[in-house]
Write a structure and sequence with these properties.
- With about 120 residues, the protein is α+β, with helices and mostly antiparallel strands.
- It has 2 domains: about 80 residues, Rossmann fold (3-Layer(aba) Sandwich); about 40 residues, no CATH class.
- The chain is about 20% helix and about 25% strand.
- It contains 4 helices and 4 strands; from the N terminus they run ββαββααα.
- A hairpin with a 2-residue loop joins strand 1 and strand 2.
- The chain is globular.
- Bound molecules: adenosine-5'-triphosphate and magnesium ion.
- The site of adenosine-5'-triphosphate (ATP) has 12 residues, from strand 2 and helix 1.
């Protein structure tokens, strides 16, 4: 099965701190994967690079066969990549499921409000 996401040698440096060091990561199409690690391991930094919030210091990100390394967030979103942010203050009263679905705003035909309410259009 082809890889939907292929990450090669991804690295992010914040000054003297190497937050993500040469990560290789693939997600085959049609699979569900998770990324786990201790606090400060670099998970959020990795996702921020994957979704264009941070530009990698080095490495390559390929999404659906296209090199998207360093592209801005809106360009990544246009290609169908959704995400939520690590901020528990955003939706205090929503379940984990509803919070996750809010990241599907663009994929939903119902808009951000319905997506936040977990309504599938
Ligand atoms: N914008 C930033 N500027 C400087 N250092 C940063 C920045 N963002 C993250 N870091 C540092 O990079 C390292 C990785 O942080 P990151 O938030 O990616 O870890 P994490 O795996 O998501 O942790 P947690 O499980 O606590 O969410 C940490 O040492 C953090 O302090
Ligand atoms: Mg994090």
């Amino acid at each position: 099965m082809a890889d939907l996401i292929e990450v090669v040698g991804l690295r992010k440096r914040f000054g003297g701190l190497l937050a993500v060091n040469s990560v290789d990561f693939t997600i085959p199409q049609g699979t569900i994967v998770s990324l786990i690690g201790p606090n400060g391991a670099g998970k959020t930094t990795f996702f921020n690079m994957l979704t264009g919030v941070y530009k990698p210091t080095a490495g390559r990100i390929v999404f659906d066969g296209e090199d998207v390394t360093g592209k801005p967030p809106h360009a990544i979103t246009e290609r169908g990549v959704g995400r939520t942010f690590q901020n528990i203050r955003l939706f205090q009263n929503m379940t984990a499921s509803r919070t996750s679905w809010s990241g599907c705003t663009r994929a939903s035909r119902a808009g951000s409000c319905a997506a936040s309410c977990a309504l599938r259009a």
